From TrEMBL:
GO terms for molecular function: DNA binding. This is Tyrosine-type recombinase/integrase. Coiled coil: none annotated. PROSITE patterns: TYR_RECOMBINASE (PS51898). Residues 1-151 form the Tyr recombinase domain. The keyword DNA-binding applies. Pfam families: Phage_integrase. Gene3D superfamilies: Intergrase catalytic core. It comes from Pseudoalteromonas xiamenensis.
Length: 160
């Protein structure tokens, strides 16, 4: 989720192979309001997804994500649920001092996009927000963003 900015419901409703396109380079998401968007995957996420399909899940059609049994086996007869994602995250993060939730990972994705100079409208599209105002909530850059914007303008003006 941190590599694609998905809502937990978007993650668990994905089906194989319908939602994975472009040879693992893009995922097709059905988001809030039944709106469809395509989200490109970086090479690391695409590789991890490919490995999951090849080594664990298998190539048969159906839910992309399955729960893992207490014995550590993939339960291919069931679809992973939002509660199952949260449970796995609690289990995997038990040594962490900070609580990590699915939405925390989504928010981190959005925040990092903005911190690295991605414009707010592209971030809005990737996150599936109906409004840039919602995306602005993820913008934690504060005053330094404004200072940098003014400095960029000064540098560009001096080169004219």
């Amino acid at each position: 989720m941190i590599g694609a900015g998905l809502r937990v419901n978007e993650l668990v409703t994905m089906d194989w192979p319908n939602n994975v396109i472009d040879n693992f380079g893009t995922i097709r998401i059905i988001g809030k309001g039944n709106k469809e968007r395509e989200v490109p995957l970086n090479a690391d996420v695409a590789s991890a997804l490919r490995d999951y399909i090849e080594q664990l899940r298998g190539d048969g059609p159906g839910p992309l994500w399955h729960p893992i049994s207490k014995a550590g086996q993939l339960d291919a007869g069931r679809r992973l649920t939002p509660g199952g994602v949260r449970k796995m995250m609690r289990f995997r993060g038990c040594e962490l001092t900070e609580v990590i939730t699915p939405h925390y990972l989504r928010k981190t994705f959005g925040t990092r996009l903005l911190q690295h100079g991605v414009d707010i409208f592209t971030a809005q599209e990737l996150l599936g927000h109906a409004s840039a105002d919602t995306t602005k909530i993820y913008d934690t850059r504060g005053k330094e963003r404004k200072v940098e914007a003014v400095n960029v303008l000064v540098r560009k003006t001096k080169t004219l």
